[in-house]
Design brief:
alpha+beta, Phosphatase 2c, domain 1, 5-stranded antiparallel sheet, globular
Amino acid sequence: MAALRVLFATKDKWFMTEINSAQVVDKSIISNSKRWLVDSESVKGELHSRTSYSNQDSIQWKQSYTSNTIVMSVADGHGSDIHFRSKVGSQIAVKTTVETLFELFHNQPIEINNVSQVKDIIRYSIPRLLVHNWMDGVRYHMYKHPFSNNEVDLILKKKGPLILEKIINNPKIAYGSTLLTAVITKNYFIFFQLGDGNILIVDNDKNVRNMFSNNNSDLNDKSSIDSIIHTESLCMDDSWLEFKTGIFDFHALKPKLILLSTDGYCNSFTNESGFLKIGLDYLALLEEFGYSYLSENLYEILRQTSREGSGDDITLGFIYHI
């Protein structure tokens, strides 16, 4: 077997990951009876490694082998001075989202016989429920852990009394986070996105699709409270109205690989076309060397991408159809 050379482009250079044919190749996926293989990894950005910031990304997923239901959520805490609890915010986001959607689509499954019958539920009702449950988690955390004197003093020193007043009146700002989610059921795929990040679909014909664009040009129309937030966020008022949503039946999408990533990945590339190629790169790794190999090496791939590219935290989750 020849070595597989996977080329990754970042802002400043190209780097090559080469897998030697002498290495053990995992072929267990051939005999695996499950339809989907799922895994994820998250790395702290090189820039954050030089500061006191922790990795602001969070990822969580849950899979049922009996119903073919998978829910995966990725969140990116904003990590700026005013969002000083955004790591907690991203953790709450993925936890509450996975729990909520797994309950809806596995434990108490919504019957989807026709996409048009549920489009308003997908577009409005579910995003509103996700934001509501995230807010419940934020309120509980605030109840257990009120803002400390150190946190208040730091915001006052760095941002001044007006910004401090906004955060005191709207504590959810401190927890600001994005949210990406994929739901897989027996016959349908449902996607949700709020804020930055990417959901990539590689179909059976090896076409790569970026599920949603990231156009935030309407941010100037937000209320004054939200004007201090620089991306669409769970902490915005009425944030459920800003969700991008999509629902597709299996035959319309024909997915072979689904990737969810925070914006640290996309920002490591000079253009979108370069970023989209990672879909084919990861599919090649999975098809040639298997699930176990990618799982074992994913951390190093992401760490090198951050180092050579954006310097930001990078999180990637993949769902592979076998």
